[in-house]
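To whoever is covering the structure queue this week,

Two jobs came back overnight. Logging them here so there's a record in the thread.

Job A:
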Amino acid sequence: MSVRGHRIQRSVLTVRGILSAAVVLLASSSALAVDVAAGPIWNNGDAARRCPQVCSSRNMQWNNQWRTTVPGRMSVCGCDAPAQPVIAQPVIAQPVAAPASRNVEAGPIWNQGHAQRRCPSVCGGQGMQWNGQWSTTIQGRMSVCGCVGAQAVQPQQLQVQIQPPPQVQPQPSGSLGFQRMTTAFRGANMCLDVVNGGPRNNHAELRPCGNYSGQQWHMEPQPNGATRMTTAFRGATMCLDVINGGPESNQIELRPCGNFSGQNWRLAAQSNGSLRLTTDFRGANMCLDVVNGGPRNNQVELRPCGNFSGQAWSTRPGNQ
């Protein structure tokens, strides 16, 4: 065999070897990791209890990763989707431009104008450009900007076309926003509820937890950093508010939502993992508390803040 023929044969064998290795590598199964919202998670122990359930409810497995996206309000669990087979086909690439695009978290984006101001800087911080697209992943809490950058592919490079695993669709925001609320004082079996009918209609109080829409609370962050609280029972137009004056002053009830400081709640995480709830109306020294005993037992109202278990609130997903 001539030297030239020997070189050609060796080149063919080398290319065949590369193709074989690429096909073996890419024909293996691949798992898709996604973040799934889980409400507030306070520490690793809390994550170890909650994340396996959050992931398994979506036919996935927890990968032992979690992170906080909105301090004191929202965390996500890292979930691995079932491995999917990948179909590989070796080809020799032509000169193409392969845009590297991905969604980048940008915090809450309220409208298109806000996106036009926010997304260019978000993408620019990743060395990319905004592609004009954005979407909300967690209603009122997290949005993503579509960012794109170009990476040139040289001619004659070996490319492998693969069939990617099915994408896991993001959760509907409505399934994330409802939470149960309990106190350290009354325990995990007494939930914040809404009175239905009678002289105390729409007032808030603790009642035994159950499958009641009045115990399903939706917490919607506002642009000023406060949180509006509504229920599945009365809907998104009736907000948790503070009575101002009279014999029921500082008691809590649902009222039509509006531009009222008594409907602006502040949820402050405490060192023990609980939350303190205050309003812009009464300020940071008046906390949501539980009446202990008497004819108003278990009703809630604002009282001076202190080291009281009735002011130590916890939240958990509404389906738990």
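Job B:
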Amino acid sequence: MNANTMAAISRGVARFRLTTAVTIGVVFLSTAITFSVSAADKPRVASINNCTDQMALLLADPDQIVSLTFLSQQKVASVYRDKALSYPTNTGAAEEVLALEPDLVLAGAYTSKYTIQLLQKAGVRVETINIANSVEDVMLNVSMVGDWLEQRQVAEEIIDDMKTRLARLPDAPSVRPVAAIYDPNGYTVGANTLRGQMLELAGWHNAASDRGVLYYGTLSLESILKLDPDILVSSPYSAETWSRAQALNRHPALAQSGIGADVVHIPSAMTICGGPWSVDVIELLARERTGYLDN
């Protein structure tokens, strides 16, 4: 093989290497740009409701969140309070939110309709979640917010985990022990609420059902004494404070009857809004039921 032939081969190899390197570089650059644009395209979100605060903190990328309500940073109201401390807060006023120029605003069923209308008139997209009255409602809210935030995969993984954990709950006994949700002022809930369904899934009979409470209501001291539940379940908003409403749970009549001896205390942040933490509560109540029957 002569020198000219060798030189030609060398030039050809060099051109191949250069072309390959350029092609690979373009592919990687194109991929990087695609991922960068994709991440940047996810909507920037402001939340003006405590329950949507929790959903945003659960599902959104950190740089998607531009503002949450001040309640998100209160321990008694927010499951993700520690995460929320990293973000600016708002009071739910439209003027505050408009200044942030979000792509999406998350609101709740009781958010002021005037605030929502003002934001929509300004061209801001507003999405609203309903109050979750069942685990199925919780999953629906997670799914919807996941879609709005373009976090479908994250939402689906959370829902799948919830379903798996619910399927592992111990079977309910043929005769269920009786539990009464008894918050300050005798506030209680019936079967058609998330907390009511929590009791049922955990294997308890809800005492409120025996008084015809289907949604939200109260149980007087006299009613509790007649119902004689096996345990009380309490989730006061301000557990470490005192009020006459809270004193009802410590009434001497309850102590004398023995009803107040077994009280399951659940942090208010875990019962105000529905989320995957609702399964934590169900699992806790199931353990309490198992422990009660074992004793």
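Note for Job B: The chain has 13 helices and eleven strands.

Please reply-all if you pick these up so we don't duplicate work.
Q.
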